[in-house]
Specification:
By secondary structure, the protein is mainly α. The chain contains 4 helices and no strands.
């Protein structure tokens, strides 16, 4: 499934953002949690427990992680309206650098130390954010 807006790739008319119009674009994902579990984690698969990448399924317990995930989600929502080149720029300039920082050994999960597993999970786990925390973020 593609979330890239490529409707304007074949037109001679400027995209709303370029023409100065202040239009609200619909979100592909309603929350940063939806974006993380439905798009980011499936698109950022790395081997865990090797020292290079750290991840806590309860990522929402870390303020820095919430800030990074929210920034990645909001920039995704903006950049996807710029078509394929916008998403390529997003991946290069935002997604890979910030996901690398988020999951680095000295990132927010530096002290998270799960037991070593034999197999690598298909996708990193993420537990549902508590309702009280979700409501406080709105």
């Amino acid at each position: 499934m593609s979330f890239i807006n490529d409707d304007d790739l074949e037109t001679d008319e400027p995209v709303a953002a370029e023409s100065g119009k202040d239009t609200e674009q619909p979100l592909a994902f309603e929350t940063e949690e939806d974006w993380l579990t439905q798009w980011a984690l499936p698109n950022f698969r790395r081997k865990l427990n090797k020292g290079e990448f750290r991840w806590d399924p309860e990522w929402w317990r870390y303020e820095e992680a919430i800030t990074l995930v929210t920034a990645l989600w909001l920039s995704f929502e903006k950049m996807r309206w710029e078509g394929a080149t916008g998403m390529a720029s997003y991946m290069r300039d935002y997604f890979y650098p910030l996901m690398g920082e988020l999951t680095s050994p000295d990132g927010p999960f530096w002290d998270y130390d799960p037991p070593v597993r034999q197999g690598v999970p298909e996708q990193w786990p993420a537990q549902e954010m508590p309702a009280a925390l979700r409501e406080a973020a709105v």
